[in-house]
Each structure stands twice: as structure tokens, then as C-alpha cells.
Automatic annotation (TrEMBL):
Reaction catalysed by this enzyme: tRNA(Phe) + L-phenylalanine + ATP = L-phenylalanyl-tRNA(Phe) + AMP + diphosphate + H(+)
Enzyme Commission number, as recorded: 6.1.1.20
Protein name: phenylalanine--tRNA ligase
Entry keywords, A to Z: Aminoacyl-tRNA synthetase, ATP-binding, Ligase, Nucleotide-binding, Protein biosynthesis
Pfam family of the protein (one): tRNA-synt_2d
Gene Ontology MF, one: tRNA binding
InterPro entries assigned to the protein according to its UniProt record, in alphabetical order: aa-tRNA-synth_II (IPR006195), aa-tRNA-synth_II/BPL/LPL (IPR045864), Phenylalanyl-tRNA_Synthase (IPR002319)
PROSITE patterns xref list: AA_TRNA_LIGASE_II (PS50862)
GO biological process: one example: phenylalanyl-tRNA aminoacylation
GO cellular component: mitochondrion
């Protein structure tokens, strides 16, 4: 996929507000007023969803941000994005082991979307976190220490970041959450789903 995308793909389709810091020229490489170098693989999310070719996909690509260079940041890096969609029937049949989750709430700093049933969100959220914990433990080792931090992203709610314990400190490796239903509706998808994005350079460090 072309790394040059429209501001609509990179921001508007993902519900970034007009004053979001990510839109600033200090954060994003602009080609012109309407085109940017993608800052995340999510710039292709709506296109993939609208294709309706699958209930899930993984996309890996180079992304570009005006980051200062330090041990965990670089202006060009690779990201992997994943999405999984569920119909109401899928959720009815979904059997998951119990998993530690904080109480989901319609209030506060990590809200359940008002259009969602809190029971459905619990299932989708547990599926998301079980899958991602399994992935990290498969990549590294079964005793890997993992913790979840509440987060905010324009395109998911509730949202979390995953941190793993590495070199005697916690390292953030991915962000994830329940996809905003408005994004799915705009893509013509009548399902609920989760999404995650992993900075592959962070994984490579470990």
C-alpha cells in the first residue's frame, strides 16, 4: 500500500478531531495540505473494513512520524495492525476462559461506547487481551510479565496499552481497544470488533 495517504484516511476516517496534536506539522510529514506520509497502519483500516473480505486481518508496513531519535523512537519504523470482527451470533457462541479485567464502565476515562452492550464489550475485550497476551508469551516466554494500562485513542473505546517488563523496567509495546462503532458503520460493517497496533521496533529491541 502506498505510504502517501490522504488526511482523510490518516485522520478523518479514524475520528481524529481537527485540533488533535497528531495533525500538527511538528508530528506528521505533510506532502501538501491533503497528503501525508502515513503515521500509522490504521490509515488503511477503513479501506480494509469496507472490502468485507474477512472478519480479521493483519497489516504490516512502514510508518513515519516526526519523533526525536532516542533508544525507543525513530522517525521511520514498522508497525503491525490487527483487527478482528464479531457478529452478534459470534459473541453468543464465544466461550472464553475467565480473565482478570477491571470493571468496565460507561463512565470515566475509558468508557464503553453508548451503542454497545456492556456484556458484548466484556467478551470482545477479553478476547482481545487473551489473544495479545498469548502472542507476546509465544514470542518471548510464558513467564513474561505483562500489565495493561488504560489509554485513549480516537478510534477505539475502551482502549489499553500493553507493557512488558524488560531490562528492569516497563516497556510499552502496543495499543489496542474496541473499535469505535462509527468507523465500522462508515465502512458499511454491522459488527463489533477490536484492533491493535504493535511497534515492531519495540518488539525487535526485546
Amino acid at each position: 500500500m502506498n505510504p502517501i495517504v490522504t488526511t482523510k484516511q490518516n485522520f478523518d476516517d479514524l475520528l481524529f478531531t481537527k485540533d488533535h496534536p497528531g495533525r500538527r506539522p511538528t508530528d506528521t510529514y505533510y506532502v501538501n495540505e491533503e497528503l501525508v506520509l502515513r503515521t500509522h497502519t490504521s490509515a488503511h483500516q477503513s479501506e480494509a473494513l469496507a472490502s468485507k473480505e474477512s472478519d480479521g486481518y493483519i497489516l504490516s508496513a512502514d510508518v513515519y512520524r516526526r519523533d526525536e531519535i532516542d533508544p525507543t523512537h525513530y522517525p521511520v519504523f514498522h508497525q503491525m495492525e490487527g483487527i478482528r470482527l464479531f457478529s452478534k451470533k459470534d459473541l453468543t457462541n464465544l466461550k472464553l476462559p475467565q480473565h482478570v479485567m477491571e470493571e468496565l464502565s460507561k463512565e470515566g476515562d475509558n468508557p464503553v461506547q453508548s451503542v454497545h452492550d456492556i456484556g458484548d464489550v466484556d467478551l470482545v475485550s477479553r478476547h482481545l487481551r487473551i489473544e495479545l497476551e498469548g502472542l507476546m508469551k509465544h514470542l518471548f516466554h510464558q513467564d513474561l510479565q505483562i500489565r495493561w494500562i488504560k489509554a485513549y485513542f480516537p478510534f477505539t473505546s475502551p482502549s489499553w496499552e500493553m507493557e512488558i517488563y524488560y531490562n528492569n523496567e516497563w516497556l510499552e509495546v502496543l495499543g489496542c481497544g474496541v473499535i469505535e462503532q462509527e468507523i465500522l458503520k462508515n465502512a458499511g460493517v454491522d459488527k463489533v470488533g477490536w484492533a491493535f497496533g504493535i511497534g515492531l521496533e519495540r518488539i525487535a529491541m526485546v
